[in-house]
Amino acid sequence: MLKFGMIGGGLGSYIGKFHRWGAMLDDSAELVCGCFSSRPDVSLASGREYFLSDERIYASFREMIDREAALPEGVRMDFVSIVTPNFLHFEPAMAALDRGFDVVLDK
Predict the structure, then answer these.
(1) Residue 68: CB atoms within 10 Å
(2) Measuring CA to CA, how many Å separate 97 from each of 31, 78, 104?
(3) Which residues of 28-41 are buried (b: 16+ CB within 10 A; e: fewer)?
(4) pLDDT band at 107 (very low <50, low <70, confident <90, very high)
């Protein structure tokens, strides 16, 4: 099973749930981490709502990408789904690609 992380899509997000559900629709992917909001309190609450451990809920996308890259290959995320507003896609996408993660941007 593939493991994925999300950037954006936290509580209060309309589109986030659809991207999360879509990634898990055929049971071939599992949400393992995320930075779900630019507000750390919302990111933490969101990750807990999605049943993630606090250690895999991040306060910034940079922290998430750096810490996930440091994890063993069988544990870290395999890809990241970016569900922020369009004008906020570039920076986290490039950071993830630079660290060797595949990126999903559904449009």
Answers:
(1) 22
(2) 19, 11, 11
(3) ebebbbbbbbeeee
(4) low
CA–CA gap between residue 40 and residue 46 (Å, rounded): 10
Give the chain's mean pLDDT: 94
Q: What share of the chain is helix, strand, coil (3-state, %, to 5)?
A: 40, 20, 40
How far is the C-alpha of 84 from the C-alpha of 7, rounded, in Å?
7
Greater pLDDT, 21 or 88: 88
Q: Please tell me the distance from the alpha carbon of residue 15 to that of residue 44, in angstroms, as a whole number.
A: 18
Q: Structure tokens of 80?
A: 């990241």
Please say whether the beta carbons of 96 and 33 come within 8 A: no
Contact 5, 31 (CB under 8 A): yes
pLDDT of residue 18: 82
C-alpha distances out from residue 7 to 36, 62, Å:
5, 10
